[in-house]
Every structure is written in C-alpha cells, then in structure tokens.
Design brief:
Strand content: 35-45%
Largest sheet: 5 strands, antiparallel
Helix content: under 10%
Oligomer: single chain
Number of helices: 0
Strand order of the largest sheet: 1-2-3-7-6
Radius of gyration: 18 Å
Number of strands: 18
Distance between the termini: 25 Å
Order of helices and strands: EEEEEEEEEEEEEEEEEE
Shape: globular
Structural class: mainly beta
C-alpha cells in the first residue's frame, strides 16, 4: 500500500501498480486502540532488561478475538513497537495462536512509554485497520528530542546511508524520493524485504499519526545512488519521522530520517 498520510475513515487513497488492496484507505492512524468494531486489547510488553515475550489480542464485533485475517505484504498482521519519543523502533512479526492471541519476542532495551501499533485486515473486511495504544514499561528511559531540520534528512547505520532527495509537499499525487548508498556514496543492490525492495514506516511528529508505505516501482540506480520513489498523499504539512528498512547482502538495515513536508504550492 502506498499511502503516506492515512486517509480519513472511508476516504480513498492511491496504490502502486500490483499492490491494490481496496478502494479505500486504512481506518485509524494508530493513535486509538479502538476503531469501528475492532480494538487492540490485553497488550503486554516485557521489561527492558532483556528480550522477552509480548502479547496482545485483536477483538472484533461482540468482543470476540479475531482469528481470520487477510494476508498483506506476506503477513497476516504488521506490528510496530516504537518509543513514544521515536528514539527506537521495532518492526515485529508476531505469531497467531489458536485462542486468538498474538505473541512475539521483542527486546526493548529501556523503559518508558512505548507505542504498540497493529495494522491488519480482518477476514471479510474491505479496508485495513490501524490500531494503537501506549504502554508504560518500568525502568529508566531518558526522553530524546527527535532530530529535525535539513541535517536530519540524511542518516546512516554505519553501513547504509539514506538521503532525502528534494522535499515532498501536500498533494494528492506527490512523490517522495530517497537515495540509498554505502558510506562512500555508491549505489547499493537491494534485496527483497516483505515482498518489496524497501519498507518505510513513519509517524507524524505533531499529530502522532502512523504512516506505512512501500516503493512505487523498482529501484533506480543513478549518480545519486539507488533511488526509491514513493507515491504520496500528504494532507498536512509538518515533520515526519521515517524508519527505512532495506536488505543488503542478506542483512536487514534500519535507518531513521526526518522528512519535512511543505504546504501545497
């Protein structure tokens, strides 16, 4: 799905070729535990000391646990566990138990408020739902300011560098372009991750809304690096923190950049 600003409930959005799911955008933006007839419940996170099990359930109409889902991007459910200050991000792939409970191993590393955001499409529904809640994890956890400004639009993890090319603007048919290179600025060959050449998850800094996108078309090797293009439907200007995930030589890399969206021209 190629959406950078979750549409309002029932509004339409645009897909890239070959990634059509429905004619309408996701319901919810990850800031509410309940949307329509569905809610995320019984969320448990491990302590910060070491990797441990997290669990939760998705409840549907009548309060029963949802057990049937529509697969999207190779998964029945996409789960994101992110520090409330956006200083840490975990893309988790939980397993569904027969009782309707989802479980996964996660390593938080520190305490403090953590957001849990689930993206899913229950069987029989035409639109995905994005549900979220915040859990206070015991332990110390220093709050960190999100980097902003032009310098925050480029970052690396010591191996892979991601750089924003240009600035997107509010538009129903916009583009976001990112260059992926090694630290010397040379293009990289990207492997597949969740059925795509990259995975991009973000959060609006002011409104906290969740956004989840995939590349529009194949990567393009240019003098600027391996360029990924995303179709965008931003509805509001402001800063967004994006977590870019790419696979290089079999290893998954994650780099965070801050993107400033300009008002429409």
């Amino acid at each position: 799905r190629i959406v950078l600003e979750p549409a309002a409930d029932g509004a339409e959005h645009t897909h890239a070729p070959g990634q059509e799911h429905s004619s309408a955008g996701p319901l919810g933006d990850g800031t509410r535990p309940a949307v329509g007839d569905y809610r995320i419940a019984d969320v448990r996170l491990p302590g910060p000391e070491r990797s441990g099990e997290m669990s939760f359930r998705i409840l549907g109409p009548g309060g029963a646990a949802v057990r049937e889902y529509v697969e999207e991007q190779t998964k029945l459910l996409h789960l994101y566990v992110v520090r409330a200050d956006l200083s840490a991000f975990r893309h988790v792939h939980p397993e569904l138990g027969e009782d309707g409970t989802w479980r996964a191993q996660v390593d938080l590393g520190e305490g403090g408020p953590w957001r849990v955001v689930a993206e899913l499409t229950p069987e029989g529904e035409d639109q995905p739902y994005v549900l979220g809640t915040t859990i206070e994890v015991p332990g110390d956890g220093k709050q960190t300011e999100v980097p902003r400004g032009e310098s925050a639009a480029t970052a690396d993890d010591g191996v892979v560098e991601v750089r924003l090319l240009g600035r997107p603007a509010v538009s129903e048919n916009g583009r976001l372009r990112l260059a992926v290179t090694d630290l010397a600025g040379e293009p990289l060959t990207l492997g597949s991750y969740l059925g795509a050449s990259a995975h991009l998850t973000g959060f609006a800094l002011e409104r906290r809304g969740f956004v989840h996108v995939h590349p529009y078309g194949a990567p393009e090797v240019t003098d600027e690096g391996t360029v990924l293009t995303f179709h965008t439907t931003f509805t509001e200007a402001g800063d967004y923190r994006f977590f870019v995930q790419v696979r290089v030589e079999g290893l998954l890399h994650q780099v965070a950049v801050t993107v400033t969206v300009d008002p429409s021209a």
